[in-house]
Specification:
The protein contains 9 helices and 7 strands. It is α/β, with parallel strands linked by helices. The protein has a 5-stranded mixed beta sheet with strand order 3-4-5-6-7, sandwiched between helices. A two-stranded antiparallel sheet has the order 1-2. It is globular.
Length: 231
Amino acid sequence: MSTMAQAIRAVLQDTPTGATRKQIREYIDARFPGQWKPGTLTAHLYGCQVNNTTAYRHHPSAEKFLFKADNDLFYIYDENTHGKNIWRLSDADAEVIDEEDIEQRVEASITYERDVEEHLIRNLGAIEKGLTFTARQERIEVGIVDILAQDSGGRRVVIELKVGEAKDAVIGQIARYLGWYARTDNQRPRGMVIASDFPDSIRYAAEAIPDLSLVSYRVQFSFNKVGVEGT
């Protein structure tokens, strides 16, 4: 019987150009139906990442063989391709955390990101009047685009969503997407990066890319008292 780690390796060996979380899950569900709980895959994709610093702390016993790129594709880690492992924590920093806790943390993060994306798609007009949704999670030659939209003038808008503060890598990511669509469409698209906050380094970098906007969001909660229905 294969282990989950072996099953993930099999997926990535069949897709050397990288695979998304969804593609890995679909492959495993098809080849090994009902063999593992859904959370087992989630925990492995988290705990087996070479370039996930917290995985060394939360899941120190897991074999580290996955590399997750900025475009959210997973690969089998290769030092010559992905660089020297600079993410490993020292033994003094290691902290063992229950696997169920890891699953809950990762699933909560995934759910939160999905909820933010859903809300954004339903409310594109609140970002810019006339902005309409055309596609989501669009796979192109240089990555997977979170959201594609069209502005009131019919121009393509490429949107990259980051839950939490944006990191420097997002500038290279959105620049790849804009360059690819400019060549494919023979018309330069607009770009948007949406995140909860942007450090100054990203604000300066965005100034150098024509038609790139930075948009921040804020999550608000409302609270209502509840009781037994009918009382």
